Amino acid sequence: MTELAELGGDLHAAIEAVNVPSYVIDPHGIIRWINPAAKRIVGDVRGRQFTSVVAPEDTLRAREHFARNIVGEGHARDTDVVLIGAD
Questions:
Q1: Cα 37 to the chain's mean position, in Å?
Q2: What is the dihedral of CA 12, 43, 76, 3, to 10 degrees?
Q3: Is 67 helix (H, G, I), strand (E, B) or coil?
């Protein structure tokens, strides 16, 4: 039994209910999961490249930041970028 399973409860329901925009991007830069708070901002963008929701002026910086995180240079950290909304 994993440590999370030992805690009980529904982890999936808990992370879906978080009111902070959250997402999961695979190592190829494809958005694999997005919570409802993020969907309200950018729409349902699962299956798309993460840069598809980044404003053109921030795309290069976002790609560089993503690449540094993938290769393990430094800590995974947040960065500020402008997103393109669903509407």
A1: 11
A2: 0
A3: helix
Query: How far, in Å, CA of 41 to CA of 38, rounded?
Result: 5
Q: Which residues lie below 8 Å from residue 22, measured CB to CB, with a gap of 6+?
A: 15, 34, 35, 37, 38
User: Which tens digits make up the pLDDT trace of 35-61?
Assistant: 999 999 999 999 999 999 999 999 999
**pTM value surpassing 0.90:** no
Instruction: Return the number of other C-beta atoms located less than 10 Å from residue 82's C-beta.
Output: 13
Count of Cβ atoms closer than 10 Å to residue 42 Cβ: 20
Residues 47, 24 contacting (CB under 8 angstroms): no
pLDDT of residue 3: 67
> Residue 33: phi, psi to the nearest 5?
-150, 145
- Mean of pLDDT over the chain: 86
Of 17, 16, 45, nearest to 31 (Cα)? 45
